[in-house]
Structures are given as structure tokens and as C-alpha cells.
Amino acid sequence: MINLETPKKFRGFVEQAHQVADNFLRANSRKYDLAEHEYPKELDLLASLVDGMGDSGQGQGAGAAGVRRGEDDDPKAKGKGKGKVKNGANMSSVLSIIEMCWGDVGLLLSMPRQGLGNSAIASVATDEQLERFKGTWASMAITEPGFGSDSAAISTTAVKDGDEYVLNGEKIYVTSGERSDSVVVWATLDKKLGRAAIKSFVVPKSLPGIRVERLEHKLGIKASDTAVILLENCRVPAENLLGSPEIDTKQGFAGAMATFDNTRPLVAGMAVGCARASLELLREILEQSGVEIDYDRPASVQSHAAATFLQLEADWEAALLLTLKAAWLADNGKPNSLEASMSKAKAGRVGNDVTLRAVELAGTLGYGETELLEKWSRDSKILDIFEGTQQIQQLIVARRLLNLSSSQLR
Amino acid sequence: MSNTNPMGIGLAVLNRIASSPAIDRLGLRRATERAVYQGAKSGFQAAGTANRTFKRVKGSGKPTRQRASGDSGVFDLTPTEDQEMIVGVVQEFADEVLRPAAAEADEKDLTSKEVLAQTSEFGLTLLNVPEELGGLSEERSAVTGVLVAEALAYGDMGQAVACLAPASVATAISLWGTDEQQQTYLPAFTADDDIPAAAFAVAEPRALFDPFALETTATKSGEGYVLDGIKSGVVRGTEAELFVVAASLDGESRLFVVESGTQGVSLAEDPSMGLRAASLTRLKLDGVTVPASALLGTADDFRESVRLSRLAWAGLALGTGKAVLDYTKEYVVGREAFGEPIAYRQSVAFMVANIAIELEGLRMVTLKAASRIDQGTDASREIALARKLAAEYGMKIGTDGVQLLGGHGFVKEHPVERWYRDLRAIGVMEGVVLV
Q: Which residues of A are catalytic?
């Protein structure tokens, strides 16, 4: 039966996450926006709380626990409850992320042991690896100075030497690169073999040969540290390679990219959460200024500010529901590449638009640092860029819709 | 019955002429149509005075209502088996009947009697009528209504609106009617055939129209009311036997049931940019006296009716939007320029991608709004948002559809120019259809 409300079983948990976001994240928002690169120590306590929630099976904490598609996720595989619709980890992760990013995107990204690398590990690691890397805080290193969206252009190399791989290269834009204790590094086994030779490695930062070169100064999400990482003859145990060590030119990049189907709705959720913060505050400010927002009267007979608000809220709702749809499909073992990219494309641009328009409508009140509107409009920009830019999402959507290959629609 | 009134006979004759192969053989079609058009253009004319009389049935108690389904507690995008079945039938009808007939219906400003008759065969008017009153279901389902509107409009929005208009009047009477109103009017809509043409008239022909600030007035007079004003967007008005009309009573917008034979009711054709198959008309109410029992529902019910009609329009936008998406997908891959399909160009491919993204976003918000109605929870916010998206992106999809086909989009060889005209109705229309 068609129903797009928050699942009943997650409602209590969402309310909890909201309280956490309010008291731990929102409360420290401006502090760490101003003090870029300072470690948000308040998060340590919160992280333990999240670990506890995760271990007790209550939801997905900050949502970076990753998403595995096991037999459990396939409703057809189960005798009992066959064909029963499931609201699972993908949905709860997205809901949790939305609440947390309503609090603060930068701080959510700084949550100990909830890095993007943890997502990758949780999504593709073997059971043995999962056990071995338990409790690590893993960041993710893909981008290099020479490429961004075109991850097939990876030039960081991994050369097998005995029981180890030797890694060499420079990685940039590594979120939590300084604070994490391991980095999931993407490197190529053989550049000539293209995408199929790209593998990811869990590289503990305790190993010799890996170091943080410097931290970036950014437009937004300043609470989150963004590092440049250098790998110089860094020897990584062979068993730290995630997925298959074989170079399967037929399967190509699909394996590595599959992670994104699961993480894109999460980033879409970040944009949805951040934009909701802006929308709520904007509404409050407008109402204080005497603007009435009426859902029944035609927008064209209401004030321009009210009509604009309605448009923003409508776009926001569409972004939210596209995101939940992508998560719902994953929870029910259905393919969602198309929907994951749709949600990221819509939420990315809506998040940016909503937060910027909120500043515009609130005038100098919105532009100044006394309110958080200007901060959210800086934070939101990255959400339309990382985990695949707006343009990359459109490319993916278009290729799937039109059934075109990457050599046809470039 | 209806065919005994002069206008009905006139139309029946015209219809017979129009569908006659003889006029094609004799090359008379153009001339005949022009004659029909000029005849209809000559201003407000009284509707037949000998329309069907709805036999007044004295109410014997409480009206019958469908019940809400409640909250399932599970996020789910799967339609129920019933919904799949109904939508399956409607899809087939849209593919095999509406789409092939669309160009001609558009040109003739008319949905054929055969098409309308088929919708009564599969019970389109029964969807929101309680089972006890001869309808289909005990449960209220706005979701089903949206899915049906979507499926019909995928075939053709103009004919979809013509088909849905009587169903919408039946829905209004089911939802807000007294026992007496239900007993008096619903049997005609739940009959096997000869479903009366009927229209739900809210809009008025002026800029910045607001359904909560109507210029059409209802004034108390003796035991009843006197209605004055002009309504627009009235589907098949010249044929309609029953109207549900919105008018301002003591400053509040309310609904009234008006039989077309009532003194002071007159109609004029109002051919518009699109939705031509819906034979849009204006309805003039000049001192129309109706009994006290004509008042339908409360002021809150009127508010609800505005919401439900906006939801129906969002559903229609979904269907026509999907038609544009599917058509342009095929076109851009097949059309070559500079030695390769134009789909290989990002500026073209991204436009198609954005059509799909916005359409899916609209679909989710529309379904959420509808499911909230079924659950019996407040859907005012979601409906407002669905309407905003439908108006914004519905038209965007329409204009991008034409743009993607270039010159081919501008000519009637392809249906996208019709979809462009039809999609402009979204956000303009109020009332007309209900889910």
C-alpha cells in the first residue's frame, strides 16, 4: 500500500537523532565554523553514544555504517515474510543523516568512526575484514590533484610485492583525513588496464609511508577536516585490499562504483537535512516579518516571499522523497542506480538553491553571522559536488534512461 | 431522457454526421466542422430546458461515506492489487483508445461518445462512490484516483478530463452530499450506461483567480439561494445535465448542485489553448434560483474540494509528463545531427535526464499527498507542494519536449505540441476534476 510517511518503527529513533543533532551539532555549529581545523571534542561523547546505538541494533547512528546487501535484504530469499515490504538500514541511515545534517553537515562528517571509508568497508568488506577493521575510523581517498570526477584517471599505484602492496601517490580532499586512523585508498594495479584495475585498500595511518601533508581551508563544512595525503612506498598488507584482487576487465568499474549507489542517497540526505534547517529558520524569520504562508490560497495571490517559500518547500519535498525512494529500493533488494543518482542530482541542487534563497530573502540578517543561514548556504555547495557532481549525476541518469554507453554519451 | 432536449438532439445529429464515413467520401469534413464551430461560437445559449430530471429522493438519515484506510506504518511505493488491476485496465484504455483518438479529438474539440461510453463500461464514475450506493469500494482512495488520472493522461489529457468530469461530480456528491443528495443524484452516475455529462465549476475567467475569493455569489432567498456569476473551465458544459458550482455565500466559498435545466443557466463555448477534447465552456448564472437542498457540504468541504482537484491536476500532469518523457527519449536517440544521434550531446541528454528527475519528484510528492488523504490525515501542505511542482515542472516538461524535437516539435505531425498546450492547464485550472 502506497505510503510515504516516515516508517512507524523509525519514528522514535528519528526523534532521538533530532535531539542529538540539536544539542550536540547545532549547538556547536558556529563555534567550529569559526575555528576551522580545531577538533570538535564534543563529538567523542556523541560517538560513543552512536556506537552504543549501533551495537544495540537501534538504527544506523550517523548513517556511515555503510550498507550491505546480503540475503537479509532480499525479500524473496526469505521463506518467512516473503514479498513483505521492508524498511531497513538504508532507510534508517538516510533518516538519521537528514536529522544530523539539520544539526550540522560539517560535524556529521567529523563523527568519529563514521567516515566514508567506514561506509566502503561496511559495504564491500569480507566478514573477516569486517571483524579486523571493527572500530577503526576510516576516511576515503579517491580524488587526486590531476582528476576529480573522472576516477578512472587514478594515478596512485599499488604494486604487489610478496604479501604486500606498495602504494605511491598523492590524494586530496580526504574528509577526516587527519582525524581518522585509517584511509581507504583507491589505487591502480595497472594503469593500462583502465578502470578494472582500480582497487581500494584499507591503509592504517600507523603504517610508515602514509602522512597528512596539509589541511585545506574551505568555503564551508569547516568543522570537517579536509586533508592532502601522501603515500610514499607505503607497504600495505595484501589482505587489506577490499573486494577481489583479480583484474576483471569485463566487470570493469562496476564493483567499485556499486558503493556509490548506496552512498549517494546518504549524501542526498545531507543536502535534504541542511536545506531543512534553512527552510525552517527562513519560515520563522518571514513569519516574524508578517509574511503569511497559506497552503490553500494560490501562490500568485500571496506575497512574493510566500510564493518563493512555497516553491522552495516543494522542491525540498521532492528531493526528500526521491532520496527516501532510492533508500527504499535498496532496502527491498531492487536496483536503484538510476534513483540514487536522481536523488543526488535533485537534492544537491535543491539544497544549494534553498539555502542561497533563504539568505536572499532574509537580507542582511541572513547574510550576517548572527544567524546560521549564511553558513548553511556555504555548507550546501559541497553537497552538489562530492560523491559525484550535479553534472555526473545527470550523466548517469541520462545514460541509463537513454540506454547509452559512456563512449556514446561522454 | 437527455436526448429529448433540443441541444441534445442537435449534438447527437452533429455527432452522427461527424462520425459518418460519408462526409469523408464526399470531402465535406472541413466545411461541416466549421459550421459546428460557428454555431457554437455565437455566445451564451440556454442549456436545454428538457434535460434529465433528477427525481428528488427524500433523505432518510445519515449519508454514506467511504472510510479512511489508516496509517500502515510502512514506507511503501507498491500499489495494492486492486490498484494495479484498475490502473492496468485504464492504461490499456489509454494506449488503445485515448492516444490513437487524441489528435482528432483535439481538432474537433470533442471527446467521442464512444470513448465516453467506454469509461462508463469500466466504471470510472464508481471509483469514489461508496459500495452501498452502487460504487466500487468501501475505502476512500485518492491514491487510486491519482494513478487513474495519471494513466488516462498518458493517453491524452483532454479526453482524460472529459472522461473524469462526471466522475468528479459523483465524487463530490459522495464525499460531501447529504443522504438526500446522494440518493437523488448518484444513481444516474452508477448506472450501466447513459452517464450524464456533468461538470465541477470553480474557476472564473479573470487574472489572479482565487477560489477563496469568488465573484460568483449565492444569496439567500426565501427557502433557497439565488446564484449569479460566470464560471469557466466547465467541461462539456453545453451537454452537461448537472453542475457542481462554487459560489460565495456570506463571504465564504461554498458548493451548490445546479441542474442544467434551471432557469437562468446559460453556456458558451470557450475553446482554449489546450484540453480541447474536454469541450471547455463558460457557465453563466443569471439569477439562478436553487432550493436549500442544493447547498453541498460545508465551507471546509469546499476547501477540501479545491485541494482534491489540485491533486487530480497533479495526477494528470504526471501522465502527460510521462508521455513527453517516453516520446523524447525515443526521439533523441533516433534523430541524427552532425553524424550521430543528438542524444550523444550532453545538452540534449541532460534535458531528458531533468525531465525524468523532476517528473519522479512530482510523482512522489503527489502520491504522498494522496496517501495522506487515504489515511485520513491532513494533506493540505503536501497538496500545495504537489500543485506548485506540477505547475512549475509540468510546463517545463511540456516546453522542453517541444524544444527537444525542434521544428518537429512545433508541427502537428508529433504530439508534443498538443502536450505543450495541455500542460499549460496545470496550475491554471481550479476545480474541474477531483480524485
A: 387
Residue A16, chain B, CB below 8 Å: the answer is: no
Asked if the Cβ–Cβ distance from B73 to A402 is below 8 Å, we say: no
CATH code, domain carrying B337 = 1.20.140.10
B361 touches chain A (CB under 8 A): yes
Give the ipTM. 0.92
Whether the per-residue pLDDT at B140 is higher than 90: the answer is no
**Domain at A234, CATH number:** 2.40.110.10
| Burial class of residue B371 in the structure, from the number of CB atoms within 10 Å of its CB (0-12 exposed, 13-18 middle, 19+ buried) | buried
Q: Which of A97, A132, A167 delimits the end of a domain?
A: A132
How far B308 CA lies from chain A's nearest CA (Å)? Answer: 11
- Structure confidence by residue, pLDDT tens digits, A339-367: 999 999 999 999 999 999 999 999 999 99
Query: To which H or E segment does residue A375 belong?
Result: helix A373-383
* Nearest residue to A395 via CA among A315, A337, A329: A337
Q: What grid cell was written down for A211?
A: 602522512
Domain end (from A132, A160, A175): A132
Comparing CB atoms, the residue among B79, B380, B392 nearest residue A311 is: B392
Identify which of B69, B73, B382 has the shortest CB distance to residue A8. Answer: B73
Domain that holds residue B28: 1-42
Does residue A405 belong to the interface with chain B, where contact is any CB pair within 8 Å? Answer: no
DSSP assignment letter at A151 = G
- How confident is the model at residue B49, as a pLDDT? 42
Q: Contacts of residue A319 in chain B, CB cutoff 8 Å?
A: 361
Residue A407 lies in a domain: no
The answer, for A365 touching chain B at a CB cutoff of 8 Å, is: no
Contact (Cβ atoms closer than 8 angstroms) between residue B278 and residue B162: yes
- Structural domains of chain B, count: 2
**A234: Cβ contacts below 8 Å, ≥ 6 apart:** A166, A167, A168, A203, A207, A208, A209, A210
